TrEMBL record:
<dbReference type="GO" id="GO:0008253">
    <property type="term" value="F:5'-nucleotidase activity"/>
</dbReference>
<feature type="domain" description="Calcineurin-like phosphoesterase">
    <location>
        <begin position="5"/>
        <end position="237"/>
    </location>
</feature>
<dbReference type="InterPro" id="IPR008334">
    <property type="entry name" value="5'-Nucleotdase_C"/>
</dbReference>
<keyword id="KW-0547">Nucleotide-binding</keyword>
<protein>
    <submittedName>
        <fullName>5'-nucleotidase family (UshA)</fullName>
        <ecNumber>3.1.3.5</ecNumber>
        <ecNumber>3.1.3.6</ecNumber>
        <ecNumber>3.1.4.16</ecNumber>
    </submittedName>
</protein>
<dbReference type="Pfam" id="PF02872">
    <property type="entry name" value="5_nucleotid_C"/>
</dbReference>
<dbReference type="GO" id="GO:0008663">
    <property type="term" value="F:2',3'-cyclic-nucleotide 2'-phosphodiesterase activity"/>
</dbReference>
<feature type="domain" description="5'-Nucleotidase C-terminal">
    <location>
        <begin position="324"/>
        <end position="481"/>
    </location>
</feature>
<dbReference type="InterPro" id="IPR036907">
    <property type="entry name" value="5'-Nucleotdase_C_sf"/>
</dbReference>
<comment type="similarity">
    <text>Belongs to the 5'-nucleotidase family.</text>
</comment>
<dbReference type="InterPro" id="IPR006146">
    <property type="entry name" value="5'-Nucleotdase_CS"/>
</dbReference>
<keyword id="KW-0732">Signal</keyword>
<dbReference type="Pfam" id="PF00149">
    <property type="entry name" value="Metallophos"/>
</dbReference>
<dbReference type="InterPro" id="IPR004843">
    <property type="entry name" value="Calcineurin-like_PHP"/>
</dbReference>
<dbReference type="GO" id="GO:0008254">
    <property type="term" value="F:3'-nucleotidase activity"/>
</dbReference>
<dbReference type="InterPro" id="IPR029052">
    <property type="entry name" value="Metallo-depent_PP-like"/>
</dbReference>
<keyword id="KW-0378">Hydrolase</keyword>
């Protein structure tokens, strides 16, 4: 008999297989496609008599369209985040870092009665017990027992608003896993970890891919004695392989793949007299149809969602579409200036910084809908205004300048931003100052600030800088963490953008000639 572990992770409410901004354009991903894969593979496993466990590995309730719609406009429908997993028949669910974006009360409303939720390391500070869910669960079939432990990256407090995680603590998942494995290994035949986190080191060479901050501790988990299989997520990478004799999967993003780990319980040997090896695989969902039964069941929800996100909020006489996101990062773009302008206007700050989160950001056409706003700004971030000296501003810009490198005398992205996963969202474009990057100079010596608010740059002067709450924690640019927080907005930046369009007849749309790269 084989043990099969199927997993999805980081679906981020991409349920339907269509593009975020381009409505009715098919996309090669979506949880309803993954549901078809899981259904077929479940039938195959049952036919073969396999021991099957299906896992969703977190970041299930937050997403640009459906996730925002439910949280902001239809919280009474949050039960769908419990209903769909039951229909897909997941045996296990874990908490992702984005599960905490909407606060503990919202989280408990969705997960409190969910018997499939495993959470071993996010604990109630008073009781020392899982604040929600259970640490592990033991499954049994044909006399074989399998324990599954659920873990979440301990790095959540470094990003999340304190009020959203009040009363809970994120304990080191490696230590928790070690203790639980020691308790469980004599009671079961296999131990599986479902960890919403990834890998800071290359799985083959052990080379460091990113700073070992504790965000991604999968490499350490792999070294634990007694571990049979490791399901990971969070980094949006596609990983399938056997390392240290342990099968490992990470099925990407937006349900673009289903992870499949197979372990033989049999004592039989193959023809060469060797023990049957573990197998790791990814089944991509792009060519799979959406599950028709589930699709029909959620048709009404889809119509309600489309009605909300396709509402026309404003029209613009200027086209702010982005034809090439990489070029916009290099040269600036009026769309980016607009977002920075909105942040400045809302907060009264001197300087603003924002990012183009991925290469799919489309900017704004002449018609502005909620779909286009949430497609361009998909996260429920809020503005934070920080006091920073001119020296700190320059150092923050030096971090941004390190995003670029030169290859054959042409501008390219520094490979360190793509090593473990694409992290283009950690590169900011600024408004309120005139600055230049000289890529012919060493990292840390590339930035020239020519003026701030049309005044000479003063390295000792204190400036008010507005960024989103994620960046304010130092995520992606540690310099911001050094500044003193002056104010924290309550409204999300996507709501600020929506209000701006509704309250302004003339859209700020002039590309500012304030940024240049020399090379």
């Amino acid at each position: 008999m084989n043990l099969q572990i199927l997993s999805t992770s980081d679906s981020h409410t991409f349920w339907w297989g269509e593009e975020t901004i381009a409505k009715d354009v098919a996309a090669p991903y979506g949880l309803f496609r993954a549901a078809s894969v899981l259904s077929t593979m479940t039938k195959d496993a049952e036919k073969n008599g396999d021991f099957l466990i299906k896992i969703d590995n977190g970041d299930f309730i937050q997403g640009p369209l459906l996730g925002n719609y439910i949280a902001e406009s239809a919280p009474d429908q949050a039960t769908i985040f419990s209903e769909l997993p039951k229909q897909i028949a997941y045996d296990v669910r874990t908490l992702g870092n984005h599960e905490f974006n909407f606060g503990i009360d919202y989280l408990k409303k969705i997960f409190e009665d969910d018997q499939t939720l495993l959470n071993a390391n996010v604990l109630d500070k008073e009781t020392g017990q899982p604040f929600i869910g259970q640490a592990y669960k033991i499954f049994e079939k044909k006399g074989k027992k399998v324990a599954v432990i659920g873990l979440t990256t301990k790095y959540v407090p470094n990003w999340e608003k304190p009020e959203n995680i009040r009363g809970i603590e994120f304990v080191d998942p490696v230590q928790v896993a070690k203790e639980l494995i020691e308790q469980l290994e004599s009671r079961v035949d296999a131990i599986v970890i479902a960890y919403h986190g990834g890998f800071a080191r290359d799985l083959t060479t052990d080379a460091i891919l990113e700073p070992e901050t504790g965000e991604n501790q999968g490499n350490q988990l792999l070294k634990l004695s007694g571990l049979s299989a490791l399901v990971t997520g969070h980094q949006h990478r596609q990983i399938a392989g056997v390392y240290n004799d342990v099968p490992v999967s990470q099925p990407g993003y937006r349900a673009e793949a289903v992870g499949q780990l197979t372990i033989s319980f049999s004592d039989e040997e193959n023809r060469k007299g060797q023990t049957l090896p573990a197998v790791a695989n990814l089944v991509h969902t792009n060519n799979w149809p959406e599950d028709t039964k589930i699709l029909a069941q959620y048709q009404t929800l889809k119509e309600e969602l489309d009605g909300w996100i396709d509402q026309v909020l404003a029209t613009s006489g200027t086209d702010l579409s982005i034809q090439s996101v990489p070029q916009a990062r290099q040269k600036g773009h009026p769309f980016v200036d607009l977002i920075n302008h909105i942040q400045l206007e809302a907060t009264g700050a001197d300087l603003s910084a924002t990012a183009l989160f991925n290469d799919e950001v489309a900017g704004f056409g002449h018609t502005i809908t909620r779909r286009s706003i949430l497609g361009n700004y998909p996260f429920p971030n809020t503005p934070v205004t920080i006091a920073m000296t001119g020296k700190q501003v320059q150092r923050a810009l030096e971090t941004n300048a390190a995003y670029f490198t030169l290859v054959d005398q042409q501008i390219a992205v520094n490979p360190s931003y793509h090593l473990s996963k694409k992290q283009d969202y950690n590169y900011d474009l600024w408004l309120g100052l005139d600055y230049r990057f000289d890529l012919t100079k060493p990292i840390g010596q590339r930035v020239t600030i020519e003026a701030i608010q049309q005044q000479p740059f003063d390295p000792d002067k204190t400036y008010r800088v507005v960024v989103n709450n994620y960046r304010a924690t130092g995520a992606g640019n540690q310099v911001f963490k050094e500044g003193k927080v002056l104010s924290e907005g309550r409204q999300t930046i996507s709501e600020m953008i929506e209000n701006y369009f509704q309250n302004h007849d003339k859209i700020f749309s002039t590309k500012q000639k304030h940024f240049h790269i020399d090379y």
